[in-house]
Amino acid sequence: MTTPESQPVPSTATSHPLRILITGSAGFVGSHLVERFLNEGHTVIGVDNYISGQVSNTDLFRDHPRFTFIEADVSHGIPYTGDKLDWVMHFASPASPPHYQQFPVETLMVGAQGTQNGLELAHAHGAGFFLASTSEVYGDPHVHPQPETYWGNVNPIGVRSCYDEAKRYAEAITMAYHRSRGVNTRIIRIFNTYGPRMRPDDGRVITNFVHQALRGEPLTVYGDGSQTRSFQYIDDLVEGISRLMMVKYHEPVNLGNPDEFTMLELVKNIERLVQVSLNYTLSPLPLDDPRQRRPDINIASTKLSWRPTMSLNDGLSIIILQYKNPTK
Amino acid sequence: MTTPESQPVPSTATSHPLRILITGSAGFVGSHLVERFLNEGHTVIGVDNYISGQVSNTDLFRDHPRFTFIEADVSHGIPYTGDKLDWVMHFASPASPPHYQQFPVETLMVGAQGTQNGLELAHAHGAGFFLASTSEVYGDPHVHPQPETYWGNVNPIGVRSCYDEAKRYAEAITMAYHRSRGVNTRIIRIFNTYGPRMRPDDGRVITNFVHQALRGEPLTVYGDGSQTRSFQYIDDLVEGISRLMMVKYHEPVNLGNPDEFTMLELVKNIERLVQVSLNYTLSPLPLDDPRQRRPDINIASTKLSWRPTMSLNDGLSIIILQYKNPTK
Question: What is the ipTM of this complex?
Fold first, then answer.
């Protein structure tokens, strides 16, 4: 039995310099990966079409000598012609319900053609392929918390299926390339994650609540507020990704924070931090919205000696500060 | 309450002549659709790349004045440049586990790119789009029998996921084109179907059993033979498809025979018909093989006044006769 304390932790921080192509580099998670890998001395090629990514996230690194950027829709091909890649990391996709429901066909395509284009590029370069999948593959789960062995409860024809089924397909084709073409693949299932550089109009609950609180508006709570989510700070996710790259494990790995909160508990947390009494209004639950979601992180804990270290309070404090002072 | 007896049944048999493009026209189901539509006076364009279809199924209609054939892989585009289509019917895909597991990436592609190419063609022609989905979207079901509202229990990363997830994706993108681009879509979930023109190496249980029985070999029974399936004769399926084309209903419709048999009961049925005492050997259950499968056909019954009319005994008699006398 290995424990986080007893074994050295391999990660990209201690790796020789790598050449890493990241699709969705101008997105929330993608931009944090770019930052981490550049800081560690790696070379990064970012690719994005700005369907949901932000130009400001590219601008952050535009002058960095080891960063290059390709504006492209990876569903139609990844026009990379440079030196041999070590990794292709596929993080491109609209990811919040309002965004992917606005672009259902594009979301389906980036999960299918986009993933396959990434797999083909990785195969051609003998590179690793890293898929950003999602806890949404579990749908509205009947098993709680969700281990990676749970097959999920997803409505294949619902309004969320353009995202959920695209990601399930992305996992299936990643496993197919691994099994039948020997590509060195990784799959993570990302649970709710928050942090700096989320789009203000992201539409997910932490962004919504913090912005409403800071504007002095009542918070919009869906359903009766008893549904639960677990919230992971972006740095914890990036650390898990970095470790998984260095471990040969090809089945999906949950990366998320198992601390679970109801929506009303989240309101209370934010209320404490902004030190203002908050009102909220109740709205109907969106269609097929999951009632609860919490990762079983035994595999990440065992294989990667990983667990989240940022508490919700500390993470919220950071983003509240950032939203109050956006230029800092 | 409508009953099959009390209402007129719209179907393609009574329609004005249509121009219908069928992908997978050289496959088992596809070839029966071609035959039916030609017999009804329609014009048919068949498309197949023979990855699992058979040239002999194209040869059946090659000289027909209202049949044309395009050899193409629809995952890379449908090179049709003819007159305005009324229907694009997407029936291309490897469909038996040995075939799709031999071609996992191609199976995934025909579910994603193939379906999308069909939807785009239908959209361009203002045609209807008809998707052949499958009972496999229910996976190893926890609900029995399976109504269309059941979300399924599918392993997204298993060896069958190249087929199951491709079809779930195909349903999702079909609904996305219907909702966001107004395409006039249909989705059927086909349960186990058998009949003349199945490939002898199809690998599914009825073909396997009948061929083994006729060769005097012991029948290969997987597991302990207690798992169940329901078997639909091809003509019943084709009748259901024809009726659904004439009814505006865009959600998935189960088409299958609700009479359920264990594998050992199937052995006994065949034994009676071939009038030879049959031996069988037990083999381990394939990975992720569903334990049971039976359609709830309330929607087809209500919306289409449809129910299967061919008994298993009569259907088996037909194919046993055909296999004994393949030239007839």
Answer: 0.93
